[in-house]
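Give me the fold.
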Amino acid sequence: MDKRQSLKTIMGREQLNNASQCPACGRNFTMGETVVLACGGWEGGPKLVHENDAVFDEATDSYVERRCYEGRKNP
């Protein structure tokens, strides 16, 4: 299985109970959305974010929150 696919998930009831809001964009999650486990500018480890708010970084083989990724590329 591709590493990207293994980090994606479809938002379900259990995930909604544990993470109701995306830390990357602030919008609420809805059932059935595709989310990814991504690192970002927040405290703690990787968190679930909307797939379109993250970029897959080939160098680290993981998803990174889009603004954080762009900040690394354009210091």
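The chain is about 25% helix and 30% strand.
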